[in-house]
Amino acid sequence: MKKLESNLPNMVMVLTAITLIASFLLASVYGVTKAPIELAKEKKKEVAIKNVLPPFNRIENDTIEGIVVYKGYKDANWVGTAVESVSKNGFGGEIKIIVGFDAKGCIFNYTVLEQKETPGLGTKMIDWFKTSKNKQSILGKNIAQEELKVSKDGGNIDAMTASTISSRAFLEAVNNAYSTISHYDTHTSATQVSDAATAATPWVENK
Q1: Residue 90 lies inside a defined structural domain of this protein
Q2: pTM score
Q3: What is the mean pLDDT of each run of 10 residues along the chain (207 residues)?
Q4: Which domain covers residue 66, as residue numbers?
């Protein structure tokens, strides 16, 4: 095979060919991995919903101002509502969580879905705010009675050590979640479910 001359046109041609091949390979990898990644995200969300709500055996999806909420039922009884929420004010950027509220409007549990906070500092939010130590835990709190704030801002929650910004952003996301459902009569809506809706979303029972 004749060797290509080392000149500008040939160099451009070779670089163009390499770029096209690399782009094709990247597109192929993205196409192969896109579906599994999306499936993994949906599975993670399903597990999160089960973890943040009281025991249920049926779930209903609803939309409030463009935000999807998940209403859990134990047979015919509404037991709580889960809602995704976001804060864009984390130290590392966006923090996405899902928060579950029981039938009385108290925080039952939460799960962090996505965050890019500093390892060993802001990442502690995964467990920090559900730990029964000092004033860390938000579980059982009713935001209707008092908005969640860190102690440094005059609030009732201890911020993560050396991570006040991350703590503020996390609590902002929790407050936003409550704001989403606070003007919505969840209990009334939950008791007016059609037979068709009842069978729409089968879930493995959350015990």
Answers
A1: yes
A2: 0.74
A3: 60 79 73 70 87 95 87 94 96 96 96 96 97 96 94 96 97 96 56 34 49
A4: 51-203
